[in-house]
Amino acid sequence: MRCLCAITALLVTCATANADGMPAVPQFTEDTASSGVNSTFSGDWDFTVGGGAAVFDCNDDGYPDMLLAGGTSLSTFYRNTSTRGGPLRFVAQESGLEFERVTGAYPIDIDSDGKQDIVLLRSGENLVMRGEGGCMFSSANETWNFDGGDAWSNAFAATWEKGQSWPTLAIGNYVDREEEISPWGSCTDNWLHRPAADGSAKFAAPLPLKPSYCALSMLFTDWRRSGTPDLRISNDREYYEGGQEQMWKMPPGGAPSLYSEAEGWKYLRIWGMGVDSYDIDGDGYPDYYMTSMADNKLQTLEKPGPDARPSYKDIAYPRGLTAHRPYEGTDLRPSTGWHTQFEDVNNDGYADIFIAKGNVAEMPDFAAKDPNNLLLQQPDGKFVEAGQLAHVDSTMIGRGGAVMDFNLDGLLDILVVNRWSPAQIWRNTGPAGNWIEVKPQQDGPNRDAANAWLEVKLGDRVLRRELLIGGGHASGRAGFRHFGLGIAARAEVRVLWPDGTAGDWHTLSADQFYILPRGKDAFAWQPQ
Ligand SMILES: [Ca+2]
Ligand SMILES: [Ca+2]
Ligand SMILES: [Ca+2]
Ligand SMILES: [Ca+2]
After folding, report:
1. For residue 45, what is the DSSP state?
2. How far is the CA of 72 from the centre of ligand 4 (A)?
3. 69, 116, 465, 468: which could join 107 in a potential S-S bond, CB 3.0 to 4.6 Å?
4. CA 463 – CA 455 distance, rounded (Å)
């Protein structure tokens, strides 16, 4: 177990909480200057949104490598050369993923060959890039019959629909990028790329989702645990005409249809930028955090249960999660949130929330100096702001990013892609409690078990999250999933597989990495 307490200049912090109840504040060291990462998301009008990162391991050493979107600059691939617990270091190298006009990127093993493939979202033609091994990639648009279109894409989600061995990809499109002068009302259709009907390893022609309302983030999520994920889309009210937040019913093999108000879906309009989910209240059902301009939303089912209607209430205010304006400085105009992620950054067993913040460009009604948020969850379920104390309060114009353990020491580090400024990367130096990182794996299609659930028993609580491909803001991750364990020396862990089969509980030791193969014993994996 690592050191539980540390004295900083400001306060005494412990792995669980301070005497005053404030959760332990992890200390982040910015490694940007020495990291080898030097990427800026550049461009004007049709790079106003987007600015993402894909984080994945492509040379099988366990250390997460990454691809950063560059907008009008080339996207850049970085191989992770960090050592365990050491400073974050990367080397830019040729990968085949270098393109102009990339807005975002998501890893997904489309052909289930054990190598991550990468979906490149672009202001222009989207690309599916097949992983060849050794961190080399090549376009598979033609081979896999993927129509990349020509829209301005920023949102992505993927699932394997029931009975399919090939994934369904959803791509969210923004306004018509040719309509720079009067873009209002020009939201272009989102596309659903389902598997080809003949069962070949190809995509069918894209199915437009009508109406579409300028999606900036989306998730396939099994919101009522029915075994069939639906498609939740967060939309930017800035440009849509008559739009709202959406959830598409996705009957396997059937036509998607929108949940209606009569079915319980509530009319909600936000500047939806980013989304993530976690069972934050422990009722067994996923809750959703959506970033916006001014106040952000935490949605929970009004009446959870297997027959639940898709009626959500916003509990961001009582949970201390509105994060609606800067928490430091003198600029008190409302703030603008983008990438968001639930992760336990201090390993106390309570999931926290990170938000990358930054003005769209120079919108005068919104804060120009808008620090990123690090909201730490307390045992009572309320969150407290710790961005400044943790030193991740950058006021560069944040967009996408990732909360990920880049140096495999069990402490989650933070990456943010900035508009017009270089991306930043911070190393978490603790203090933090115990942890566990796990990777479910199954044979056949959907190897990484998208839409499985991970459950971690910690005393009388069960930590629970759905494994999703999608969400955030234009940014996706693959690899080990992290849980903080507080002072527990072990935890019981199980996987609920995407087809509904419940795996056995495994008793696993803290501070270790584990592979969880379906139907077999979990085994420890040791980073070099
Ligand atoms: Ca690697
Ligand atoms: Ca692959
Ligand atoms: Ca925490
Ligand atoms: Ca780390």
Report:
1. G
2. 31
3. 116
4. 6
